[in-house]
Amino acid sequence: MSTDPPSTADTTWYRALFPDELPDGRVTTANCGDTTVAITHYDGEYAALDTTIDHDGPALVEIVTDSDPV
To answer: Is the dihedral of CA 12, 35, 50, 64 positive or negative?
Structure first.
C-alpha cells in the first residue's frame, strides 16, 4: 500500500491508519475530516466505507467495533 496519496485538486486525502495497524480479519473506524469511515482488512485487502446511514436505526459505527472480526 502506498504511503503517498494521489494528487488531485478537488480531493482532500486523510491518512486513516498505517497498514500494520489493522490485523488481517479485523475492522476499525477512523475519523477523516468530518467523516467517520469503517476500515476492513480481509485476506490482505483493505476497504473503507462511510459510516453514514440514512435511516432511523443506529449508526454503523455503533454496530461495528474494532473488536469485531470481519
So the answer is: positive
Residue corresponding to grid cell 480479519: 25
- Using CA atoms, how far apart are residues 65 and 29, in angstroms rounded to an integer? 7
- Mean pLDDT, consecutive 10-residue segments, the chain of 70 residues? 62 88 93 89 91 66 54
Residue 56 CB partners (closer than 8 Å, separation 6+): none
Nearest to 39 by CA among 56, 58, 16, 62: 16
Q: Is the pTM of this model over 0.70?
A: no
Beta carbons within 10 angstroms of residue 48's beta carbon: 15
Residue 42, all three cell numbers = 480481509
Q: What is the pLDDT of residue 52?
A: 77
